[in-house]
Amino acid sequence: MKCISIMILEERLNFIRSVLNKQGTISNAFLLQQLNISESTLRRDLDYLQEKGEIIRAHG
């Protein structure tokens, strides 16, 4: 039986913060792969961090 790990919101946000602190920039594709979450979940997480002023999102 395969065990599926689901990260809770705060764990995902801490992971995103940690990677950004180390690398400076990250792609959505990288986050989707590492976190194993849907695009809509990632979008909500990034919207939250942007609203808090913790990140600046660049498009394109």
From TrEMBL:
Residues 9-60 form the HTH deoR-type domain. Keywords: DNA-binding, Transcription, Transcription regulation. InterPro entries: DeoR_HTH, Tscrpt_reg_HTH_DeoR_CS, WH-like_DNA-bd_sf, WH_DNA-bd_sf. Gene3D superfamilies: Winged helix-like DNA-binding domain superfamily/Winged helix DNA-binding domain. Pfam families: HTH_DeoR. It comes from the Bacteria. Transmembrane segments: none annotated. This is DeoR family transcriptional regulator.
